[in-house]
Amino acid sequence: FAQPLCGPSRASLFSGRWPSDTGIITNAHRTQKELDESECTMGAVFQEAGYETALFGKVHSMVRFSGEYDTKCGFDFWNSWDRGGPRYRDPLLGTNIGGSQSASTLKQLKMSLRRGKKTAYRKIEHVGEYGPQFNYEMISAFLTRHGRAQSEGGTTPFFMYWPMILSHGPGGPRPPNESLPLTDPVLEDETEIFHRRIAIGDELIGKVLQRLKQEGLDSNTIVLLVSDNGTPRHYSTYVNGVLVSGAKKKNLGDQSVRVLGLLRYPNVVKPTVINDMVSMTDVIPTLMEATGVGSFPASKDPPTGQSFWPAALSGGGQNPDRWVFSFSDNRRPHVVAHSQNWKVANNGKVYQRLDYYRIARRAPHAVCLSGLLPMVQDVFEKTVAAGYPFKIPGRSGKHTRVCTLVCDPIKQLAMCSK
């Protein structure tokens, strides 16, 4: 489960904390709210554990640290789009890679990365390049570096974070087809352009997996692939033969928050489908357990998520009573608690999950009859209202505590226990 917007999802993924912890409940460029240094966590966990770390792609909620991703966020190397300038054609990318400040071409940067050369941070406009392909080439060079080191007896592990630019649109006033390579045929239909972006992303992921195999890194590398929110509202797609309309930004339906999650670790994790409730906050604890990283950086706030590694090994069923949360700043309901079968919104409404992204509203006492009432109360009373004082910006600039949003449904649900 993700959040209904990319910024809060990526902040939760990177920090291991709910939007109610980080305060990032919308895309950071709109509110200027970004992660604190104590929440810029994922790379730091593995850097401190002795991994060589790298970041390639779109930086969202930690742009304030651009130029300091190594010391603030734990990435030894990075090549990133920092929310400024074009990201697809002729991308403007920031990097610390290079044997000198003059290193600027793709060939020079790849050679520097293979040799582990770093220099001062700078932004480079890569005229004639395509952003997603450019980052793939950098990823390929990073994997070549570690494949060669392993073949020569090297033992330094690596951690790589690839927050993809795809499949987002080009942004700003640019026409949608500018999100495609210059070599692509011109497309006018936005749905066709969106599908093409998905196909390009799929192709690049496949090339990275193939590269891992070519470098001899395939069997001892964990690959985790997740999406940061559901499909935009004006697109539809088929899920198991059922047409599902997009619902990005909406907080209640599964279309916006129930997303793709794939974990690959050959010879360790068997191919299966896990139905456990998993959220973005769980990624850091899971990867720590999977890799045996037992200590957490003292300067970082600990994750509020939990590891799903036991479920990955066993095929699921480890935590059937788990609840996860999604938040929205400007769309009601503002807070939703999700379980395997139920959704409880901060407006007191209760929904039962059916199949293929369909839900049905139920009377609140239905949750009582299911035996889940104590968990629902705990979700709102402790986790949302009491544990995480979280403010929602209003259009007037005033703030409303989530507690005032959830207290009424708590009272309504509490009637069931009488």
Count of distinct strands: 16
Helical content (DSSP H or I, runs of 4+): 25-40%
Strand content: 15-25%
Q: Please tally the helical runs, counting DSSP H or I stretches of 4 or more residues.
A: 14
Mean pLDDT: 84
The rough form would be described as globular
The low-confidence runs, each spanning 5 or more residues with pLDDT under 50, are 385-408
Content-based structural category: alpha+beta
Distance between the termini: 33 Å
- Radius of gyration equals 22 Å
Q: Strand-and-helix sequence, N→C?
A: HHHHEHEEHEHEHEEEHEHHEEEEEHHEEH
Order the strands across the largest sheet as they lie in space. Answer: 4-3-2-1-5
Q: What's the story with the biggest beta sheet?
A: 5 strands, mixed
Provide an overview of this structure.
- The protein has 418 residues and is an alpha+beta fold.
- The protein has helices at 6-15, 19-22, 28-31, 42-48, 69-72, 106-114, 131-151, 190-214, 254-257, 283-291, 309-314, 365-369, 373-386, 402-414; strands at 52-58, 77-81, 92-97, 118-125, 158-161, 223-226, 236-239, 242-245, 261-264, 324-327, 335-338, 342-345, 350-353, 359-362, 391-393, 399-401.
- It is globular, with a radius of gyration of 22 Å.
- The strands form five sheets. A five-stranded mixed β-sheet has the order 4-3-2-1-5, with helices on both faces.
- The protein starts with 5 loop residues before the first helix and ends with a helix.
